[in-house]
Specification:
The structure is a single chain. The chain is mainly α. The chain has helices at 2-25, 45-71, 76-96. α1 packs antiparallel against α2 and α2 (45-71) packs antiparallel against α3 (76-96). The protein is flat and about 45 Å long. The relative contact order is 0.13.
């Protein structure tokens, strides 16, 4: 029960952070509140790509945490598939940069 509550809280928090990163990736003018305020307004294109990449990575972490919380150790294949999927996506995204 406590594990499920922790997973729900984690998923909610990661959804917030992921949405923030996704908004940055789409050009939200929040450069002052990220990366130590290095950029004013929207982020440059390269940093927008990095923010979108971060959003995907954060979503993957939330999926894995939710699978572990719901199924525990009873579904190692599901955890492995999710982890391998994230790694494959990362390789694909990095290779395009």
């Amino acid at each position: 029960m406590l594990t499920t509550i922790a997973a729900i809280i984690f998923s909610a928090l990661t959804a917030f952070v992921g949405a923030f990163q996704l908004a940055l990736g789409f050009g939200a003018p929040w450069g002052e509140v990220t990366l130590g305020g290095r950029y004013t307004g929207g982020l440059p294109t390269r940093m927008r790509i990095a923010a979108a990449f971060s959003a995907v990575l954060i979503a993957g972490f939330a999926v894995i945490a939710t699978i572990v919380a719901v199924y525990g150790g009873s579904r190692p294949a599901a955890i492995a598939v999710a982890a391998i999927g994230i790694v494959a996506l990362l390789i694909f995204l990095i290779s395009d940069l």
